[in-house]
Amino acid sequence: MLITPRTIHLVAPSGYCHNPTAAARGIARLRAAGHRVEDNGIIARRKQRFAGDDSQRLNDINALSHMDTLPDIVLAVRGGYGASRLLPDINYPALRQRLHNAPLAICGHSDFTAIQLALLAKSGVQSFSGPMLTGNFGAEVLSEFTVRHFWQALTEPELKIKWQTTPQKLQINGTLWGGNLAMIASLTGTPWMPDIQQGILVIEDVNEHPFRIERMLLQLHQSGILARQRAIITGSFSGAALSAYDNGYDFASVWNLIRDLTGIPVVTGLAFGHDADTVTLPIGAQGLLAVNETSAELQISGHPVLPRLQEELA
């Protein structure tokens, strides 16, 4: 896959980069591929467990509203915790004015989900839930799957993602949104939760036991958010250890309960989240979800795309 060289601007609105070796490896890989990586000085920034104090991390986001020249990609260094502190002071009107219809890809996941959903709710700015610098581009073994899906999402106006799931049959369309479930649940009842009607909600998480995932989904259900969705797609839920005490209670049990409570289809098995292999999804785009027996396909359109060189299109 031929990739146009891009300008990649790093942001660190969440946790301190505790693995600078991985960050350096990610930057080296991106530069070796011909990309320009800006603002790598933020990697060493630290205040307690955060990637700098609140004002520094807030400026990473607000600075996008007054850049003379926007980069092609805004890439989060890592997740962790800290984005939620910033939400009240993000300059949403200025970001709306500067970024509206701009060919800019804002990328990240995990804790970054809070900023992505707040931008969608308050500014109408779409972003991409996908890989980050340290955990993905800086991994010891770079996932070709993740890299391929990343560039496809950022450059193709119409995406098709296929995977295997549990048997069912459906075809629906709606607004694609979601990300890290813990961050989505944390926005319940706040001004930064998007009011998505007829949505396709995609969720993932890491190091969360099934009962915690169930509790968060019940919060979304009991607050009326799930009632406004047409389907739920589950990504990876890794890192939780089940025990004899669970007695067969697992993630499948959670999905079955949510189906029974809400009547909403739950389509499992998408490679999306904290695992090495992850697709990149535009948050706020239009999705068409079709499942025929065990084959699922998600068609996505209406998201911002980066311009491509003529030879890249050939």
TrEMBL record:
Catalytic residue positions: 110, 204, 274
Molecular functions (GO terms): muramoyltetrapeptide carboxypeptidase activity; serine-type peptidase activity
One GO process term, biological-process aspect: proteolysis
Keyword field contains Ubl conjugation: no
LD-carboxypeptidase C-terminal domain residues: 173-286
Keywords in alphabetical order: Carboxypeptidase, Hydrolase, Protease, Serine protease
Keyword Magnesium annotated: no
Domain LD-carboxypeptidase N-terminal: 8-130
Enzyme class: hydrolase
EC numbers on record: 3.4.17.13
Pfam families listed in its UniProt record: Peptidase_S66, Peptidase_S66C
Annotated family: Belongs to the peptidase S66 family.
Name used for this protein in its record: Muramoyltetrapeptide carboxypeptidase A
Lineage: Bacteria, Pseudomonadati, Pseudomonadota, Gammaproteobacteria, Enterobacterales
